[in-house]
Amino acid sequence: MQDLGDGVDARPYGMPSGHEAHVVRRDVPWLTADPVSSVNFTPLHELDGIITPNGLCFERHHAGVAEVDPARHRLMINGLVDTPLVFTMEDIKRFPRENRLYFLECAANSGMEWRGAQLNGCQFTHGMVHCVMYTGVPLRHLLNEAGVRTNARWIMPEGADASAMTRSIPLKKAMDDCLVAFAMNGEALRPEQGYPLRIVVPGWEGNMWVKWLRRIEVGDAPWHHREETSKYTDLMENGKARRFTWEMDVKSVITNPSPQAPITHGKGHTVLTGLAWSGRGTVERVDVSLDGGRNWRPARIDGGSHPMALHRFYHEFDWDGSPLLLQSRAVDSDGHVQPTKKALRAVRGENSIYHNNGIQTWHVRAGGEVENVEVS
Amino acid sequence: MQDLGDGVDARPYGMPSGHEAHVVRRDVPWLTADPVSSVNFTPLHELDGIITPNGLCFERHHAGVAEVDPARHRLMINGLVDTPLVFTMEDIKRFPRENRLYFLECAANSGMEWRGAQLNGCQFTHGMVHCVMYTGVPLRHLLNEAGVRTNARWIMPEGADASAMTRSIPLKKAMDDCLVAFAMNGEALRPEQGYPLRIVVPGWEGNMWVKWLRRIEVGDAPWHHREETSKYTDLMENGKARRFTWEMDVKSVITNPSPQAPITHGKGHTVLTGLAWSGRGTVERVDVSLDGGRNWRPARIDGGSHPMALHRFYHEFDWDGSPLLLQSRAVDSDGHVQPTKKALRAVRGENSIYHNNGIQTWHVRAGGEVENVEVS
Question: Cα distance from A191 to chain B (closest Cα, Å)?
Answer without folding.
Answer: 6
